[in-house]
Amino acid sequence: MLESIQDDGGVTVSSEQLARRGHTTAAQVRKDLSHFGSFGKRGLGYSVDELRDRLRIILGLDQVWPVVLVGAGRIGSALFEYPDFKRRGYECVAIVDSNPEKIGRKWGELVIQPTAKLESLIKELCATLVILAVPASAAQLVAECSVNAGINGILNFAPVQLQVPDGIPVENVNLVMELEALSFQITRASKT
Amino acid sequence: MLESIQDDGGVTVSSEQLARRGHTTAAQVRKDLSHFGSFGKRGLGYSVDELRDRLRIILGLDQVWPVVLVGAGRIGSALFEYPDFKRRGYECVAIVDSNPEKIGRKWGELVIQPTAKLESLIKELCATLVILAVPASAAQLVAECSVNAGINGILNFAPVQLQVPDGIPVENVNLVMELEALSFQITRASKT
DNA sequence: TTGTGTGAATCCCTTCACAGCG
DNA sequence: CGCTGTGAAGGGATTCACACAA
Prior knowledge:
Two copies of one chain form a homodimer. Chain A is an alpha/beta fold.
């Protein structure tokens, strides 16, 4: 939703307007925002500029996050080329793959490294996030390796529930599950 | 989680075991399953085979879902090549793109079609799902076109909130948002 | 005895409603 | 006035606890 808030010096937006954009309710927007402080003006709404800046800080987008990409397959390359990535403060600082044919190839400025180097790369480059774009069978091992190296968060595309220590946030993107959610809803709706 | 349940004729699994795998609680598993009927055996647990079959039906996985892929870019190709896709009952029946250079190319057996044909393709092939792997600027238009053609569900990779009629399920996969969720959690944790 | 299925208690999130500030 | 911020109410989901079936 952030991307829809332009820099319009002085312009304000009401919780009602934000709610419409985000498919939610005005009360919900106000409650959520109030959770982080009260930066709206009564009778006016929220200053667009201030709102953007505050949310940037709350979401940690006021800094650059060094990311290591694990898996130089199709998903990996789709992510790597995704323009919003860098634009939003996520910088790919290393690419790792286990396939000997891919190791040594260059993607942009980066040379694909062997998986064996993952741990040392994370440490040396002070990477905070890893993106796991690897087969399910390899994901747990890579996750453990990353945690050992001191990673702060994991974005996991492999269709497995990773077992990681408490306190290491994991976000899962499971394409098949998304489709299953759709087929469930369709099936469900057609039975009523 | 389904993929972790093997065919082991006669073997049973307890809510406790399922809970561990799914990072949840035994009570949660029992409540969820009981919502669809009571197919566990007291003192034993759930028959793995029966559980799998029942869930397949509940999730609508006992049928093949014809899918149209819109956008033959990197994300599109990653999805198209994803082996679990077909294995789980999702069959790509058409590929559509707006780039004249891509139209006419073959991916496997399928020829990439122009976007103009989307509506007729959905109708002719009785597609139930569309996958939107297109830029944000094109997504809303494609969604509307798909809805007009009678689509049943949308898997949206574009970073926009699609406006679709009630009753058409939409699942969103927003890669940047997933990363933002991670950086938020990390930022949050480091402030306590 | 083991582990399900389920009411009851609890928690959390959403919605309501309105006091109060600009 | 208009719209935020927030207690209070409401509702849905999670957790507890236990009767009961195998």
